[in-house]
Amino acid sequence: MDKKKLVIGVIGADVHAVGNSILQHAFEDAGFEVINLGVMVSQEEYISAAIETAADGILVSSLYGHGELDCRGLRDKCDEAGLKGILLYVGGNIVVGKQPFDEVERRFKAMGFDRVFGPGTAPETTIAALYEDFGIEKPEEE
Amino acid sequence: MKPILLVDFGSTNTKVTAVDVDGYRILGTATAYTTVETDINEGLDNAMKILEKTTGPLEFEERYACSSAAGGLKMVSIGLVPELTAQASREASLGAGAKVWKTYSFQLTKGDLKEIEEYHPDIILLTGGTDGGNTENILYNAQALSTLSYDCPIVIAGNRNAADRCEEILEGRSIYVCENVMPGLGELNVIPAQKQIREIFLKRIVQGKGLSRAADLVSGIIMPTPSAMMEAMELLAEGWEDHPGIGELIAVDLGGATTDVYSVAEGNPVNVGTVMKGLQEPYAKRSVEGDIGMRYSVHGILEAAGDRKLSLLSGIQRKRIPELVDFLGSHTDYIPDNEEMKHMDFALACAAVETAVTRHAGTLEQVYTPTGLTFLQSGKDLRKVKYVVATGGALIHGEKAEEIAKKALYDPQTPNSLRPENAEILIDKKYILAAMGLLSQYYPVAALEIMKKEIADYGHNE
Ligand code: B12
Q: Measured between beta carbons, which residues in chain A are less than 8 angstroms from residue B369?
């Protein structure tokens, strides 16, 4: 089967680059093809990249606390651009300070994200979720 | 001595340049008026007569030509997302020396097809999707192009996984499959498509344009003129084997209808903290401003620069500027014959150079983040480029060529435009650059040394 393609990057004016690179390697090792847009990525850039590459999912990172503002409207724009039903995840330190996670999750889900991950989520957790959502049986061992 | 003749068939002029490739020198140059529609050979004959008046009779061992006659190499570019493959497709075509009439993105409509049909391009560059990426769009567009009423050569340089099916859809037409212009996201790969375009130009277009008779006189018309310019600039910048070039440069070709800008430079961010945005640009990049030119496109200069700026530059009253611009737009072969018009042309040339180079160069945007200032760069940072080469009839024949060419430089008033900060101005006084690009295909060292002597003036003495 063809590898599933993921577009990743850190949204908005956020320059935290480290977690994003770690995710790239983790996802590649887990059998995905990764298109890494780096830091300071605009909503339009995720969408353009997903169109050209025919990506299966967009994974948005936000570390600096302004994620809620930056992510607003992304799902609508995806629908508008013909990316209907594309998988959308968000993770990192997506809001300012320590807020109850279930509330944060609810707000991001209302924005159209399929899954929302809180601070300190290990890559393995995300990968397991990806396998589940794409209906992939088990990781290919090398 | 080994004399070689280089011919540039333009739409209104035929230029000839005679060189001695053994002595690395120009023997003479001449220009004559032509109309391709009637007989291109007449222009060549006339130019030769003028040339021989200064050089005396010459026995040429080889003759080569480039051409921008009959509208140049007319192309349309097609891609998927405007700022990704459509842009890559456009860059590829421009770099191949084409006149890109329009760039289409997403799916072609019936209206788009009708437009293409009417424009009747010489070549279509069809792209879309990264390798392994989107196939739907390029297949749709291939289907659409299969309804074209004439056999327009189509270069297919999109998602490689869609190439076979595109070929099937377009079977029976002149199609050429080559590597994707954007194999991975943001990764530019324009050279294979450009080679293909050049080859088609050689094989098919030259004959179709009434140039084949002229081609008999020369050993062959080998490339479109802008492509020859690009070759010349790359050679001058990089050198050839143990003959050093002069390093990174930009060139401005100011014409009556368009202004072309070339850069041979990496253009990477100067500071580590700068974040790059947008498509990576080619190391050898050409841009064409179709709305910026000294006669046919003079209104575009007024629109871009405004009457206030033109008034400041020329010393002519603001309200008189539009009148003069109208006059120039409708008298396309006018040469200034009074002081006022000389000032006007000077101001227009300054504004044209500034506008065209500003559009070509990258920009640096300041973004305030919670930590403070961050810089976002799009396009090429040309600030460290060391040379600006000025060419084009409108520029080199004027009295103030150097002053005009300096408008290509960085301006503290517009600090986010990444134009060269401290570049030396080099002027193509004999108007030989396209000829040298042509020569470089056979005699690179001679072409390089002649350019260094004539343009960069590297302390060589005759
Ligand atoms: C290094 C660092 C910086 C460096 C970044 C250097 C760089 N270019 O990368 C600098 C100094 C530039 C910086 C600046 C700022 N920082 Co800072 N920074 C950090 C720090 C110390 C480490 C970040 C890091 O690299 N972690 C290691 C990586 C591996 O972890 P990670 O980024 O969290 O990513 C993992 C997971 O979160 C997850 N993940 C990430 N994205 C996603 C996405 C999905 C979909 C999923 C499922 C999972 C996931 O997987 C990753 C891999 O395991 C953190 C504190 C911390 N210990 O986390 C603060 C921290 C992120 N920074 C913070 C802040 C506030 C800032 C500034 C606003 C500070 C300021 N006022 O100046 C600026 C913002 C600048 C900007 N425009 O982005 C806050 C954010 C608070 C919030 N969200 O409420 C933190 C948490 C510190 C704190 N406790 O206050 N920072």
A: 13-15, 64
Per the CB < 8 Å rule, is A48 touching B81? yes
**Token digits of residue B377:** 């760069």
Cα–Cα distance measured from residue A4 to residue A54, given in angstroms and rounded to the nearest whole number: 10
Q: Contact B154/B176 with Cβ under 8 angstroms?
A: yes
Structural domains of chain A, ranges and CATH numbers in brackets: 5-134 (3.40.50.280)
Ranges of chain B whose pLDDT falls below 70 = 34-39, 69-71, 205-221, 369-371, 458-462
d(Cα B286, Cα B92) in Å, to the nearest integer?
9
Residues of B in contact with A65 (CB under 8 A): 370
Two structure tokens written together for B88: 């890559």
Structural fold of domain B249-427? Nucleotidyltransferase; domain 5 (3.30.420)
- Complex-level ipTM beyond the 0.85 threshold: no
Q: Residue B377 CA to chain centroid, in angstroms?
A: 24
Q: Which fold has domain B74-205?
A: Rossmann fold (3.40.50)
Looking up tokens 């002519």 gives B316
Pairing of strands A87-92, B3-9: unpaired
Q: pTM for this one? A: 0.84
The count of residues in chain B is 462
